[in-house]
Write a structure and sequence with these properties.
Length: 124
């Protein structure tokens, strides 16, 4: 890969991050919440759970209190489990990927959520 390819990949990721952050905030604003950094602010799972509640109109399991890694993993796992129950396909993604701030998989998760709740709203 040459430097131009890396640059355009980084630029594309930055645009996606900015766009997805705005999309998330447009929904979180309904419950007076917002995020500033997509990768950091979803890591503990609390905002992810809140986002899914806003989008689905359903109550998810209450987030685990605490800031330790195990608490973050539990919260993200609650969100991912909810998505699986909604028949959302999450291939090669685990709660550790989001907690660790994996950029590519965090963007992929938000894109999957957009496709599920924005493009094809629940009609069941």
């Amino acid at each position: 890969m040459n430097n131009n390819t890396l640059y355009f990949g980084d630029e594309r990721e930055a645009v996606q991050k900015k766009t997805f952050t705005k999309w998330v905030n447009s929904h979180l604003s309904r419950v007076s919440c917002r995020i500033t950094d997509l990768y950091m602010d979803l890591r503990d799972g609390r905002m992810l759970i809140k986002l899914l509640e806003v989008l689905s109109g359903e109550r998810l399991p209450k987030p685990t209190k605490g800031r330790m890694r195990i608490h973050c993993l539990e919260n993200v796992d609650k969100a991912l489990q909810f998505l699986k129950e909604q028949r959302v396909h999450l291939e090669n993604m685990g709660s550790h990927d989001i907690v660790d701030g994996n950029h590519r998989l965090t963007l992929g998760l938000i894109w999957t959520i957009i496709l599920r709740f924005q493009v094809t709203p629940s009609t069941c």
